[in-house]
């Protein structure tokens, strides 16, 4: 793996403004083209921000860099920085590092997504800010100490404004390039009002999705695969539980029924 350390010198009073710029532009620019953010830190004096990015190798970094430079979001970022003023950050520099060993157990990112329908049988889709070329099912990353069921309900609500109930799991998908394991659910809309999430989704809605019309909305092949599997679902049994002592929180038996919760 190749790691790139990017260091920004900032004025402390502009830290919040710079953080918003990072989350809106710099982070999605890298992640959408295949980089992984290892971590981001600020000094105690709040005058320096350090971000460390991970790439498979030098060739991967160079490809990501080319893609970023040619992207529409980067052009938007440059316009936004011009409006904010040159002192958004005073200067920046980067250097590259390789690991001297492995000191932590392997980790995978767990994400969730959901095929949500309304009473008319239409499917809930979103268009994300950093994936503007396609619609997709709503979803996102599972947070620490959060169950996958709580995560999908939260992510759908945050991204679309819609409240949902969940029927079951329709598929599990692993992106071995970015170490992401995605659990796909199917469920129903039960309330809320459609609304985009500022800085993340640019359009949300229910669409008359069919196998024939799928490619008109969803352009990326891995998103198409998940959606097709969820259209005619075969539900997987799954359970949520705690140990020491054992406590069964909920169980789905594979027939869209739950013994608790």
TrEMBL record:
Keywords: Hydrolase. It holds the Pfam family NUDIX. It comes from the Bacteria. Its cofactor is Mg(2+). This is NUDIX domain-containing protein. Residues 105-232 form the Nudix hydrolase domain. The keyword Hydrolase applies. SUPFAM superfamilies: Dimeric alpha+beta barrel, Nudix.
């Amino acid at each position: 793996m190749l790691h790139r350390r990017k260091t920004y010198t900032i004025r402390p009073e502009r830290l919040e403004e710079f953080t918003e710029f990072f989350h809106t532009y710099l982070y999605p620019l890298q992640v959408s083209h295949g980089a992984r953010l290892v971590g981001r830190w600020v000094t105690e004096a709040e005058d320096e921000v350090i971000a460390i990015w991970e790439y498979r190798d030098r060739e991967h970094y160079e490809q990501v860099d080319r893609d970023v430079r040619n992207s529409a979001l980067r052009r938007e970022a440059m316009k936004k920085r011009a409006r904010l003023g040159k002192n958004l950050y005073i200067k920046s520099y980067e250097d590259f590092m390789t690991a001297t060993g492995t000191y932590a157990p392997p980790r995978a990112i767990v994400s969730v997504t959901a095929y949500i329908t309304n009473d008319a049988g239409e499917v809930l889709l979103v268009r994300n800010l950093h994936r503007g070329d396609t619609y997709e099912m709503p979803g996102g990353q599972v947070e620490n100490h959060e169950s996958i069921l709580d995560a999908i309900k939260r992510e759908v609500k945050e991204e679309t404004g819609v409240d949902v109930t969940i029927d079951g799991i329709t598929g599990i998908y692993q992106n071995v390039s970015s170490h992401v394991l995605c659990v796909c659910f199917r469920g129903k809309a039960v309330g809320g009002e459609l609304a985009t999430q500022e800085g993340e989704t640019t359009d949300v809605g229910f669409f008359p999705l069919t196998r024939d019309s799928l490619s008109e909305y969803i352009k990326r092949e891995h998103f198409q695969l998940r959606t097709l599997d969820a259209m005619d679902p075969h539900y997987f049994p799954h359970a949520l539980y705690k140990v020491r002592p054992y406590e069964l929180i909920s169980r789905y038996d594979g027939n869209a029924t739950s013994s608790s919760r």
